[in-house]
Amino acid sequence: MRFDEAYSGNVFILSKPDYKTADAVLYGMPMDWTVSFRPGSRFGPARIREASLGLEEYSPYMDKHLEEVNYFDAGDIPLPFGNPQRSLDMIEEYVSTLLNDNKFPLGMGGEHLVTWPVFKALKQKYDDFVVIHIDAHADLREQYEGEVLSHSTPIRKVCDLIGAENVYSFGIRSGMREEFEFAKTSGMHMYKFDVAEPLKEVLPTLKGRNVYVTIDIDVLDPSAAPGTGTAEAGGITSKELLEAIQLIAKADINIIGADLVEVAPIYDHSEQTPIAASKFLREILLGWVK
Prior knowledge:
Layout: E1 24-29, H1 44-52, E2 58-59, E3 64-65, E4 71-76, H2 84-100, E5 104-109, H3 115-125, E6 130-134, H4 154-162, E7 167-172, H5 177-186, E8 189-192, H6 196-202, E9 210-216, H7 238-250, E10 254-261, H8 272-288
């Protein structure tokens, strides 16, 4: 897996050419081997990069320009098609290298299971960290139809890894009854339907802590992001997610990495989903990379 070479395909807008001097590394995790409804998120990272070329390089939200952030687009991890466990092992190894090199890891999915090995890599570096999870789905299942490796399980897995009390989920509007019962009894923090308003209450309580943020694009209403594998009606708007990104940027916390997952461009011929995703990543780069 390459780190030092420039990516030969399309890169995210204004990506710098040098890995060694970069503060942040953008990388793709093109896996959709365990999805329960519609595949296609393995094509998300490439399409997000292409969509980014239409972005303005200046953000009026952050009042910053992408030239002010030193980030390197490393391309996609070459995951073996149809092999979930080997793919997850490769992601964990890759992100561990980024963390050992003191890079801010910013991942693009791929299905949401790709975040699980990132959590495992983070646990090797940080004794204590918090997860902010922004999603339509609880992702608290222990298995899906007998499969423990499923895109419906990563948040349950990280609850077991770092303690449920260190997991904060926002925007949740779908899941099994058992998942919502687990959220109530385990000590984790679940905020249904909304994102920005509960974040305003929660972020001050996380002052000074290490925080990893994982965003599933399906937290948006399907009218704003139809290009995803498991769309759920009743979601938030793009404006609300941008507000949430800004709130996190302004909070007195130590953001140690992030990812944005589940963009499946094949279901969105208008391309509004990868266009929105690329804008969210621009704001993350400008606001979360120190």
